[in-house]
From TrEMBL:
It comes from Ulvibacterium marinum. Converts 2,5-diamino-6-(ribosylamino)-4(3h)-pyrimidinone 5'-phosphate into 5-amino-6-(ribosylamino)-2,4(1h,3h)-pyrimidinedione 5'-phosphate. Substrate binds at R186, L206, R209, E286. Zn(2+) binds at H44, C71, C80. This is Riboflavin biosynthesis protein RibD. Coiled coil: none annotated. The active site is at E46. The keyword Hydrolase applies. The gene is ribD. It holds the Pfam family dCMP_cyt_deam_1.
């Protein structure tokens, strides 16, 4: 099952809204096939693992290990349970049940009805951790929310506005290794969100140019549509969703997606609702301070990934205030990375 989880990570950032599943097939204590979920629309992990088995006759005496309950319904691809039954694989070991209403125990039941021995809950907590995006989406009806920011040694995420006036370019708090790590994270999540001021002040591209992978959906909070055509988020290179209070479609830019919402109350809850409607399983919240604090105050966040760079600003925009359980501390060159979990 640990190998299944290891394999499954290869699909991060490419399979949504499907989960990133890993599968291993064992015969006489030897792995004879393994696979992970293909990019969305392609074969599931079980299909890829079965296809990898050179001698299909061995499947009749094999055990199939999989991180998530095999699907039992037709979607973009046929049910994985049907393929398992077709090859008369006698035993299936499952990490965690699938909470999707079209599966949710039906896959296990179908396999058992066909005479297959099924064991559920092997390394369940580790499988839940791996499938946290998919499980949060279906169990809580919202994306898995990751907060991310960089702060100085003295606790600021941006310099004073007066400094911005003389030097408008982005102020890098972290080193290039940390910046690359962020681009890796972007490639693993389905969407990335920033507020209006972050775009106006930094003109970010919000892509993965420093890492190999797929750039996430850009989600921009722009209440009054202040962001003009000369900003990168309107370049049309990456799918972009604007969340705005402006309902006048004549102000919308071609090629962009817009959703109208009321910014006055329960804003974060409404944002999560829209993202759920768009089948966004996970999202990185990258700023600015007001947007990050709004998610913290709402309680609708799961992880906070905080870099502390080796520099000071003495004054400026103070880093968000939050409380959570420290999961990990790591050095990234001269920077320190702390990862927290929402209690």
């Amino acid at each position: 099952m640990l190998r299944c989880i290891q394999l499954a990570k290869n699909g991060l950032g490419t399979t949504a809204p499907n989960p990133t599943v890993g599968c291993v097939i064992v015969h006489n204590n030897k792995i004879i096939g393994e696979g992970f979920t293909s990019p969305y629309g392609g074969p599931h992990a079980e299909v890829n693992a079965i296809e990898a088995v050179l001698d299909k006759s061995l499947l009749r005496e094999a055990t199939l290990y999989v991180t998530l309950e095999p699907c039992s319904h037709f979607g973009k691809t046929p049910p994985c349970t049907d393929l398992i039954i077709k090859h008369t694989i006698p035993k299936v070991v499952v990490g965690v049940l699938d909470p999707h209403d079209k599966v949710s125990g039906k896959g296990i039941e179908r396999l058992q009805d066909a005479g297959c021995e099924v064991l559920v809950g092997v390394l369940e907590e580790k499988c839940r951790e791996h499938h946290k995006r998919f499980l949060t989406y279906h169990e809580k009806a919202r994306p898995y929310v990751i907060l991310k920011w960089a702060q100085t040694l003295d606790g600021y995420i941006a310099p004073d506005k007066s400094v911005r006036n003389t030097a408008p370019e982005p102020f890098w708090i972290t080193n290039t290794h940390s910046q690359q790590r962020v681009h890796q994270w972007r490639s693993e999540e389905q969407a990335i969100l920033v507020g209006t001021q972050t775009v106006l002040e930094d003109n970010p591209k919000l892509d993965v140019r420093h890492w190999k992978g797929q750039s996430p959906l850009r989600v921009i909070l722009d209440r009054n549509l202040k962001i003009g055509k000369d900003f990168h988020v309107l370049d049309g290179n990456i799918p972009t969703l604007f969340l705005t209070s402006v309902s006048d479609r004549s102000r919308y830019e071609e090629g962009m997606t817009y959703e109208v919402l009321n910014f006055s109350a329960d804003l974060v809850e409404k944002i999560c609702g829209i993202l759920h409607k768009h089948q966004v399983l996970s999202i990185l919240i990258e700023g600015g301070a007001q947007t990050l604090q709004a998610f913290i105050d709402s309680g609708l966040w799961d992880e906070a990934r905080v870099f502390t760079g080796n520099r000071t600003f003495k004054n400026g925009i103070v880093a968000p205030k939050f409380s959570g359980s420290l999961l990990q501390t790591a050095s990234v060159g001269t920077d320190t990375l702390h990862i927290y979990q929402n209690d």
